[in-house]
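Hey, quick one: can you model this chain's 3D structure?
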Amino acid sequence: TWWSRRFIEVLESFGMGGRLQRGKNYARSGQVLNLTLSTSVVVGLVQGSRPEPYRARIGVKALSAEQWDQVERALAGQALYAAKLLAGEMPEDVEQIFAGLGLELFPTTMRELTMDCSCPDWEIPCKHLAATCYLLAETFDADPFQILAWRGRSRDELLDRLRELRGT
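Sure thing. Here's the predicted structure for all 168 residues.
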């Protein structure tokens, strides 16, 4: 879907193309045993050539409380956005709300991401990190609200705040 394509496009714009392809193969063959997403960090357990799986972490800076307040007010102020979100749908152009506030939903530079893996490969991203990126993209497909959770706002927190701001 749009969410995963956008995330992969962002990563490819950082010059990760070749590494991402190797990671995609790992992801497709089921090498990612577990993926957990919390505010600012995603951790993947990826089976490599050694018996013990590697731990791949991808971090992004969460938006501050003040930034989320701006986003929530902007979303609540747009009836169409608020209605879609409250109905459980993520508007495809939600990035425009962030951009209008001078914020980014997806990272725009590699410096905005922190990546590390317990494998011996010194290259960033290694194939384990790249596989984790692909599974993260699929997570965004399954539930686009996870993009917001990664940036620091859970679905329930966002929807409660929108209801509060809209007086519903």
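One thing worth noting: Helices lie at 2-13, 17-28, 65-77, 79-86, 94-100, 127-142, 145-150, 155-166.
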